[in-house]
Structure to design on (119 residues):
């Protein structure tokens, strides 16, 4: 029987995460280019790299729902902020009792509430 050493498992996991992040970033970029042509057209050549970094940050937090990942990336691209690395959001992102879904949802809803026009 063959057995894998822990470092082999770790390398396999790292590769799987890297592939997932790249696959998801490509999906998000395609969808964003289709749904937000003005935003993505004006963004510049770092679009793919910035989406990939946002997907990587979402993956590190355990956010795994595609709609949330898309919104997460949309906030990153529309605002230009690395909000997932900002002290202002640390309380939410590091909260021990919030699930990854709740963390992402809170950030997404806070952003969209802040940019909605008031009546």
């Amino acid at each position: 029987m063959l057995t894998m050493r822990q470092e082999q498992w770790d390398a396999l996991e790292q590769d799987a995460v890297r592939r997932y992040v790249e696959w998801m970033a490509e999906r998000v970029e395609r969808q964003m280019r289709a749904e937000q042509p003005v935003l993505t057209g004006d963004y510049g050549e770092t679009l793919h790299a910035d989406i990939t970094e946002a997907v990587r940050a979402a993956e590190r937090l355990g956010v795994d729902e595609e709609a949330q990942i898309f919104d997460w990336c949309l906030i990153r691209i529309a605002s230009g902020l690395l909000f997932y690395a900002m002290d202002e959001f640390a309380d939410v992102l590091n909260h021990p009792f919030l699930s990854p879904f709740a963390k992402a949802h809170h950030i997404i809803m806070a952003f969209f509430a802040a940019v909605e026009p008031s009546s």
In short: The chain has six helices and no strands.
